[in-house]
Structures are given as structure tokens and as C-alpha cells.
């Protein structure tokens, strides 16, 4: 939870599991991005709005004993979960702190890398979040965002119930002032923020019925249930019917689905 933005997803039952499943599915591509940035032993890195883990462990593995991987989140339950994970893996170079991703209060110009994933699009005010991240990076340090474009959230064969849920998902975020197609604008936002040597790497993931992420859309809708009903985007009975149809369809071995396109964008703070 980013606190200064308007984040409609609730920490309901299963939300930690959903976020961990998402992180695992994105692990390979997150690693590619960190490799291209060149994260090295001794670096001090920050994962803003890390949730129950984010990429903190990936950072900790790369920066080693001489480095530091800091995760910041507003939710104490998420942070406690992340602490237990780091401790169980013997990651002594991890620090987890509670705070607002948009107003961290952390020392300015103190990190070699500041990373944010799926926050600017889901909690709003992307320019403000990029500005905060830029201020936390040291001169010559990196700012890296990963944000989605929901236009590629599809299933094959198509299903009207899936389409209704995908539309409700996008509308729920839009009603809160958020743009879950932000990936289309992220490169320009970085350049406008004065970051240098801005890079752009989009990717899209797809899933079969026997993979954990096949249930991503229904799981996310459950965490958005309150916002969907509050904004009257669907009635409760319509929502339950669409969820049931969607789960049956996704369990069919002949069904596949695609995730939102994720744009990885990173650049340097000027010296």
C-alpha cells in the first residue's frame, strides 16, 4: 500500500499469496532487468512499496554482504511477512521499514538503485512517485519502474465472463484516479523527469491452466471486490457468476491466458 496514492486493492485473505505468486512469475524478467542495470556487490538498493517481499530478496542476493537491500511499505503485516522470509533465507543484508512510498522520509541521494513495481499505475500520481524515487537515488544512480498495460489481459478461447471481469478491474482503478495502462506512458514520464540514458524493456507472460498464475484475474478481482461493489461496476450476484464461469474456464486444459504487458523502464539520475 502506497498511502499517498489511492490504492483500491484490499489486504483480504489470500492477498499475500497472490502477491508472492505474482513475484515468482515475474522473477526471471526482474532478474534480466537487474542484470542489465548492473546491480553489483556493495550496492545500496531500495524497493519502494515492496509489499510482502517484492524484489528485496533478488536485490539482497546481488548486493552481497557489503551491500544493503531496503524494502519500504506502508503495511506492517506485509513487512512482518517479508522479515520472516528474509530471516528464513539467512539474508542478513535486508532492512524493512514502514513508510509512505510517495513521502518516504528517507535520506536523499543515498541509494544506488531505487525500484518500484506496480505502484504508479495502481496507486496513482506517477510523476510524484518518480520524483520521490529520483530524489532518493544518488547522482549517477538508477531509478527503475515496472508498470503494466492491462490491454493484453486476455484468455484464449475468449470468454464473455472474463471480459466483464477485466473491464471491472480497469474501471475500479480508473474510478480511484489510476491508470493501469501506464506502461504506455512510462518511458516519456522518465524522460520528462530529467533521468538520463532511459531504457525500455517490455515483456508479456502467458499461462496454461496448470500454472499458479492462471488464476491471476479471479484472485485480483477478489482483492478488488470492495471497490467493484462500492462503485457499482457489477452486482454481487453478477460478480459471483462471472467469477465461477471464469474459474471453470481457466481450469480447462485447453485454456491459456496472457498477463498485462509489463514495461521495465530505468534511467540514471544526472551527476
Q: Gap between N and C termini, in Å? A: 31 Å
List SSEs in N-to-C order. Answer: HEHEHEEHHEEHHEEHHHEE
Order of strands side by side in the largest beta sheet?
A: 3-2-1-4-5-10-7
Strand content: 15-25%
Question: Helix amount, in percent?
Answer: 40-55%
Instruction: Give a count of the beta strands, DSSP E runs of length 2 or more.
Output: 10
Low-confidence stretches: none
The backbone outline, from C-alpha atoms, is globular
Q: How big is the Rg?
A: 18 Å
Give the averaged pLDDT, no decimals: 94
**Structural class label:** alpha/beta
| Biggest sheet details | 7 strands, mixed
Tally of separate helices: 10
What does this structure look like?
The chain contains ten helices and ten strands. The protein has helices spanning 15-37, 56-63, 76-88, 120-123, 126-136, 160-175, 186-192, 216-223, 225-230, 236-251; strands at 44-48, 68-73, 94-98, 111-117, 137-149, 154-156, 196-203, 206-208, 256-258, 261-268. With 271 residues, it is of the alpha/beta class. The strands form two sheets. A seven-stranded mixed beta sheet has the order 3-2-1-4-5-10-7, sandwiched between helices. A three-stranded antiparallel beta sheet has the order 6-9-8, covered by helices on one side.
